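Standup notes
- HV: blocked on the assembly model, inputs below
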Amino acid sequence: MTLRTEPVTVNIGPQHPSTHGVFRLRVTFDGEVIQEVEPVFGYLHRGSEKLAEERTYSQVITLTDRLDYVASMTNNQAYVLALEKLCHVQPAERGLYLRVIAAELQRIASHLVATGFLLQDLGAFGTPLMYCFRERERILDMFEMLCGARITHSYLRIGGVFQDAPEEFWPALRIFLHDMPPYIDEYEQLLAENEILVARTKGVGLLSQEMAIASSTSGPVLRASGVPWDLRKADPYEVYDRFDFDIPVGTAGDSYDRFIVRIQEMRQSLRIVQQAVDQLPGGTSVGKVPVRAKVPFFIRPPVGDAYAHVEAPKGELGFYLVSDGSIAPYRCKIRSPSFINLTPLKEMLIGWKLADLVVILGSIDINMGEVDR
Amino acid sequence: MTVALSAQEVGERLEKDLPGAGASWQMDQLQVRPEAVREVCRWLKVESGLELDYLVAITAVDFVDHFEVVYHLASIGRNHSLVLKTKVFGRETPAVPSVVEVWQGADLQEREVWDLMGVRFEGHPNLKRILTWEEFPGHPLRKDFQGA
């Protein structure tokens, strides 16, 4: 006698600890194997783009904090760059360096969150996450010194940054740069060669190079599939062309590569921060060199449009601003990497088992604030 | 550095190959007729020297008398970019052809534009609302949308 099985449709999320926020997946299983996936978005949709149309250009900066809320600095950066492009403002040199330092520290913090939660999803409950949060905590402390906030920074302004880094920031950064490389080695030794992690991630959730490009993925997801596309190198913004760093790429495009690319990127970020500190105009003295170009209080950009993008921790974050000459943007479109990185989700999930689903989703590293906007 | 392609050069080549596209240009921005969008995109993707294989973003802007659908394109191999725009008139059923078959990355983005701006993408395999729910009244990013 043969046993007849029927496909079962299961809801995963929106309240599920492994969906990294309020993400919902309707998954059809044949036994344990995924047959069909339908992602359901919008549980965290706040209408950021519409809200931006009713605020002045400088007020929109606070909205961008709330997109990818574990990487607010780079959100600020993308918006401010688009605005500067629209208004043809040349930012203050020292401000640009402070932005780079903040953005690269933010990248490390975001990758630490991604790594910690991936391990959490794999069932390594607590320990790796606490290791990662130990270092992230120090980055947040430094951000607190810079701007008084730990999560929603709003540190960047058109023409530079909100204020110069205070005196206590520099020793804290120096100690961090000294302590961090051995910590990254520790993750690699503890995790990258861990038998369980390798068994659960190697060859799981494959994304081919062609598929990664065709479906517009960006960031570590694209690079893990073997495409050396990093906007800091491909289209250097601010002062990134003055630093020497490498772009880590994967070969297989599996969950393991996405994980390892993030670990390696943290090392490159440290290199960039070190170089930025060495080249910083005005050095570590406080308040001697301006950190912000002079701009009018109400910014009225000329009629037109501008698109600017940055390499955010999760991929290409872009802002497309349309101005009608008034004090508020006519249209503010957010090209969010988390959202577009979910395009090939179906291809990555179908054929894998339920237990692999959380691993694959964790390796893409999404943030619902940015997916739903 | 990503080089912005000259829309004039691309437009002149496009006119030769696809005279029906109604190409016009301004700096790095190429304008075409909405009906021709899919053919133009396919041409931009495979034409040698252009090879715009990466769809960066699709968006739409409501200019009240018309909608402007904007495609930001890039080539990863050649590291250059182009902005493609098309004007769609009419507020009842504005529509442009879908480009999902050219770049799969258009899938979620076209659904988003349909949901928030109400521009239909003809030929999209699954054009459902994405950030709001199916019963949601209106399209929130339109200028005449009355919020709660």
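- HV (later): unblocked. Chain B has a mean pLDDT of 87. Chain B touches chain A at residues 1-2, 53-57, 59, 61-62, 70, 72, 76, 79, 83, 103-109, 112, 116, 130-133, 140-141, 145, 147 (CB under 8 Å).
- Next: hand off to the docking folks.
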